[in-house]
Amino acid sequence: MRIIVIVLLLAILGSLGSALYFLLSDKSGSQRTVRALTLRVGLSILLFVLLIAGYYFGLIGRRP
């Protein structure tokens, strides 16, 4: 579970970085920035749902 969360966080940061790069480098008004930000939002929602499900099923919780 921990590895999945870390991989998703790295993917979110990568998507955010690519959106910044596309924002600064594209001058023609392409949709690459919008797609990268949409992917970031989708990954963030997936991570949130995964964390909620992990807590619900007991995969994530307090240590004794």
β-strand amount: under 5%
Mean pLDDT over the full residue set: 91
Q: What's the total number of strands?
A: 0
Largest sheet: none
Structure write-up:
- α1 packs antiparallel against α2 (about 30-55).
- It is built from two helices and no strands.
- The protein has one domain (about 1-55).
- The protein has helices at about 1-25, 30-55.
- The model has no long low-confidence stretch (mean pLDDT about 90).
- It is mainly alpha-helical.
- About 75% of the residues lie in helices and about 0% in strands.
- The two termini are about 20 Å apart.
Task: Tag the structure with descriptive keywords.
single chain, 64 residues, mainly alpha
Topology overview:
Elements: H1 2-25, H2 32-56
Helix pairs in contact: 1-2
Summarize the structure.
77% of the residues lie in helices and 0% in strands. It is mainly alpha-helical and 64 residues long. The chain has one domain.
